[in-house]
Queue: 3 jobs
Job 1
Amino acid sequence: MTGDAMDTILAQWARERPDLDCAPMGVIGRISQLQREVFLAQRATFARHDLDAPSFDVLAALRRAGAPYQLTPTALMRTALVTSGAITQRLDRLEERGLITRGRSESDGRAVVVTLTDAGRAALDAALPDHLETEHGMLTGLTAAEQAQLADLLRRFLVSLGRTPPEA
Amino acid sequence: MTGDAMDTILAQWARERPDLDCAPMGVIGRISQLQREVFLAQRATFARHDLDAPSFDVLAALRRAGAPYQLTPTALMRTALVTSGAITQRLDRLEERGLITRGRSESDGRAVVVTLTDAGRAALDAALPDHLETEHGMLTGLTAAEQAQLADLLRRFLVSLGRTPPEA
DNA sequence: CACCACTACCTCAGCGGTGAGCTACCCCGG
DNA sequence: CCGGGGTAGCTCACCGCTGAGGTAGTGGTG
């Protein structure tokens, strides 16, 4: 019977507050813990490519968008789920390193067009396989069926929270 | 066919980099997204009780430990998974508000003993049911069977990462 | 019993994010 | 064609955490 840290916590609550049903923690607490493991593993991977998670996040969004690899800060803000101030900061760092460029939009005087440079695309394409290998490696403890089942349950969970994607 | 944000991202990668197997993102990306939803929901709950997540985390650890509700900063550091500096800061805030007290250990001159005050215990016991209700509410979109299955898969995942609890 | 590797806790500079607020610009209605 | 609500992006003060480093105390060893 190998338990995890959450089993310990649940046992403590069962002893101290037997009147409360702490079962939800079994799901939610574990998600928080796993996210931390994911974060640490990814950070180590990104560091090998002179990147950090926020930078990778932006570069990947631009790369995913396809040629000509352009998005506005607002679009980046929506996919990254951070505030506009955070995106400004990220773009400052990436522009400084020559991985992206900022230009004003021709059709909308307020908008900025962020473009992935060749160097930026090269940096992302170099890091991406390693990143995927890291994620793949983390999942090797689960069977393919378990992985699929887990992905499915997590999607159901997200959808049930009303987090539908922002229209194609 | 309701998809989530991750389905959109996976479709983009499939178009731009059909040579790569991005399936692992289906699990890991969703965990990150869910953690963010959890964080936001919990923050709103804690705010209703004049608390924030780091404070609740410490108070809950002390409460869980059982009477006399005492732990060292090192023990708190291990359960909270943050650095010692972060714990020092958290304890400063909680001590300021009279929710915990700090005293020196009698048996070990280096150690500090953190004790939950009556006010601290009252604050936690007031927030805890609301906190559980929030978590319960987030999960209502999944059936009881799905919740159990999800908790089980997440535990397997954590255990497979070698994150066994730090010995009773 | 003096030494020393180890542990507990605190300090502090730096980092990335938030949230409020600003300016510039868009565009609809009167 | 002008006014005004809405949007895009940036600025800035603040916040919590990290990671490196410092001090004090512990306990085994020769």
Job 2
Amino acid sequence: MASRPTLKTIADQVGVTVSAVSLALRDDLRISQATRERIQQAAKELGYVYNRHAAGLRRGDSGTVAVCLNDLSNPFFTEFLGHMEARFREADRMMLFCHAHETPSIQARFIRQMAEHGAAGLILVPVAGTTREDLDGAQVRHLQDFPLVLISRDVADTGFDRVINDDVLGIRLLFEHLYEAGHRRFAWFGGGGDTSTARDRECSFRQQMDAAGLPVTRDSVHHGPTTLEFGDAMLERLLTMPEPPTAIMCFSDIIAFGVLAACYRHGVRPGVDISVTGFDDMAAAAYSAPALTSVRVRTDLIGQCASELLLSRMAGERYPPIRKVVPPELVVRASTGPAA
Amino acid sequence: MASRPTLKTIADQVGVTVSAVSLALRDDLRISQATRERIQQAAKELGYVYNRHAAGLRRGDSGTVAVCLNDLSNPFFTEFLGHMEARFREADRMMLFCHAHETPSIQARFIRQMAEHGAAGLILVPVAGTTREDLDGAQVRHLQDFPLVLISRDVADTGFDRVINDDVLGIRLLFEHLYEAGHRRFAWFGGGGDTSTARDRECSFRQQMDAAGLPVTRDSVHHGPTTLEFGDAMLERLLTMPEPPTAIMCFSDIIAFGVLAACYRHGVRPGVDISVTGFDDMAAAAYSAPALTSVRVRTDLIGQCASELLLSRMAGERYPPIRKVVPPELVVRASTGPAA
DNA sequence: CTACATAGTTCAATCGATTGAATAAATACA
DNA sequence: TGTATTTATTCAATCGATTGAACTATGTAG
């Protein structure tokens, strides 16, 4: 029944004031070592639990950071989560987490709530279609000078820090790899969402096609969700064509895995009869059947860089907004080969 | 420069007291509708942001719940996260999140910190080897009567609520499926961690073998981490045996995917030359090459049930600790077939 | 015209930790 | 011995929202 002990409880027990206890528990040298030890001992015995609400109220900092992702079912994003979590734990920051499900209203609500909680910073993979307006004014007036780092997806015209992958380069690497292997008939299985990632990758695909003097027809570009189902279904459709493409570039590994599954069912051999590429190089890409050619997005570097940037902003660093673009790496595996 | 507005700021603006503002913002009927509207209007104009530290200090509830998982790289666990996040969002609870990396010290620290934050409840997938002592006394004296729900993995002798999968049943379903298909030489690729899941599944495997009158030899049981690498490497080893098993049961889909990858490289046809089963039935299982026979762990039901249980405990419900066991479902796909 | 609800608002204490300033005690210095 | 300095601790205000009790009009019943 005894309610949670407070500084007062300890103070009474030891015979000092709350001030002394407060200082002692934080190892302040103003309190003599002897007293400090008695106080810390008593705190332990009483099972004292620090109250961050009280501390946060007085100090204005809650010791938390907020992270908002949009798609947990995609391991690619959980890789980010892992890397950032590690860095924040190191910095002794707790993480408020939100799964926005690509839904603007969820994202907006989370931004408001994390502000209410006094989170000191926010890392955000903006949901598709997020605009500048969504990020400032709208929810939290004081977001203007609030530490906020966008990752993975870019939002134009923001005054925020951003850490993103070089999607244009990634597609170029894959395209060149396929082109050099003799492929001339390409298909693009692209992300349908309104994100910078989807736009940049598809745009880069079209540029490469143009530069190679290859026509982009209605049959070469297909849009859909980033799911296994989409890749699977799309390949089924492609196989009914009179002269199907010999190389399929997918917006994401996830889609490519779907394509591989459909190939397997139809006895089409990826890397021999057809070439398939992914994007992201998630862990499973090395173990698909066959192993998937992809570009490795450096989630580790991006995640670390973003956390670092956020922590430095939180520490009060002032500099113009940074837009960091991290180059990915081509990883050639068995799912691609010379054009038949 | 103007610091964040408070109730006082609004009160001065409108010409009422903080009490009135506090009540009005929460739509308390004690304040006349006219005044309420004026206050709410002013709050909006000033860009007022609710301060949960202040409210939490006074009310003793921060409106957060804590969730601690141990392995983000396994999509199986992020499925839980998704389901719980949805339920908590619905209940207007924020989520403090921790990735314990199977590390007891991280788990312990998180438990302490979430208590400091005044989280109203905790859902935990305990890290391998977690004991009763780790969960009470040790970190937070007041955890005794603290809403805590364990999921996925069980910890013996706790007085806490638990929601877990019926692992024994799952293995039995898979075994019977394989046995009826004529398989008699089995291998078990098992989780190496000290978790109830690893123990229960392996134990069930041994029971089934016994019941079928099949010997469990040194060559039939293999332990390792829940990774693609482990499954891959283990199959390589198995193929060097003079008389390899015809059926391989894996502790997790992840391991099975590694096995399928190795099969593919060696031209061994899963479902024809050898049968492979996973466990969990994560989304990718339907799209592996070939599609994987597995048992579907109802992460949706378990996640929902756990959140529901936690919310009801948080609401003050008192009843003896509940141990809810959710039955999984057999999903037969192409990776298993009649014994050669 | 008094007594009495009733609605609308304010008063004032409270939650628990923090911190700059003040005080007391002990030690050093002249 | 008296004063300056250091060390150890306490005082008291503060952060911002909440809430039971108190107060003040206004209206209603007797």
Job 3
Amino acid sequence: MNHSPQVGRPRRSSQRILEESAAELFLEQTYARTTVDQIAQRAGVSRNTFFNYFGSKSDVLWVDIDETLERLSLELAAASPSVPVMDAVRDAVTRVAAAHPDDRVPWALTHVDLMGTREELEASGLRRLMKQSDVLRDFIGQRVRSADSSLSRAAAFATLAAAAAAAGAWVSAGVGRRALAEYVADAVGPVCAGFAAVIEPG
Amino acid sequence: MNHSPQVGRPRRSSQRILEESAAELFLEQTYARTTVDQIAQRAGVSRNTFFNYFGSKSDVLWVDIDETLERLSLELAAASPSVPVMDAVRDAVTRVAAAHPDDRVPWALTHVDLMGTREELEASGLRRLMKQSDVLRDFIGQRVRSADSSLSRAAAFATLAAAAAAAGAWVSAGVGRRALAEYVADAVGPVCAGFAAVIEPG
DNA sequence: CCGAATTATTGGACGCGGTGTAATAACTAC
DNA sequence: GTAGTTATTACACCGCGTCCAATAATTCGG
């Protein structure tokens, strides 16, 4: 699991360095107006090296989010089979949110206003979220004997969307905010309750 | 409202022509492998003319969707103030879906499999939907005296995401499918019910 | 019939993101 | 020192999207 090689040419840069260089430039020039060249140049590496550490320019904005979201499948797998499916979903999503370090507010969200086109930001953010939709849909569908797979899909989509909205609210709340998990729980709760009433009409 | 000019050079092309040329090429080569140049060339116009009719390459995929989605704000405005908020939301969204012509299955969704990266497609489609989130959020927030605006946002996001999932299911159902509005109602219903229980605990 | 105004189309150039490839640098192990 | 491994680099390329200036095709007013 440890991917730190003792052999071969040592790394000159790192995700952190590039991230910081990018953040500076974004603040100075906004996201839209800074090029990958500039980021790489400030970090002291070539443009191609940037793409060695990030798959795309927008990836810089979401490093923290990605790390946190990877926990979702683990949390789902750890769910007890005895608890109702939508309760398990709500708890898993909430726990993922709780695992996110409170001090690490994703850069992208804190400076939404500074980023020229907000659409591009939303698009890349949604894409991040949708990556998890398959995992969530499979989990729900697995536990539901309903032949109507569209319901699982809808539940997964709606749950993640609510979580995204909660994250947005959390950031907007500013310094005096409560914990992220609370916002997420408040937003995801109604969605899961609504679908639970349909999926498990017990 | 009619912007058809009697003066000036007449149009050589149209959105329909370009759309059809694009559809042919997408089927032959997939979306990812066809360039804007090719679309324009097949339509008998120059590349720049393409951008006269569409803002971007992906816009071609969503013309029908965009037309339908524009109805949302109208439906919301027509809602009676006496009916509970989330009921009004559910009905409005369902009516928008009902207004979509059943024969006009959005090209993008019918051929999801043929389009290289499905992620990009899903994201761009969801983005279209989320353009309406402001309208929906404002509508909900207006009728709710709750100071917690984050709930309105979550409700709007979740509702639209459920609608998107329903649209996907509708397309996947193939030729023997029921009406789009039914899928949407099934998916949006639980979401609205869940939030109604929180927003209007009456 | 002629010019002015209007609108669509066109070509050309540019910037930027992203990909691919082949060369090379920096290091470890033997 | 040589071989193997990995990171970095330069270079070329493609495609999307934008901008701009030129031009074609039409209507309108004289």
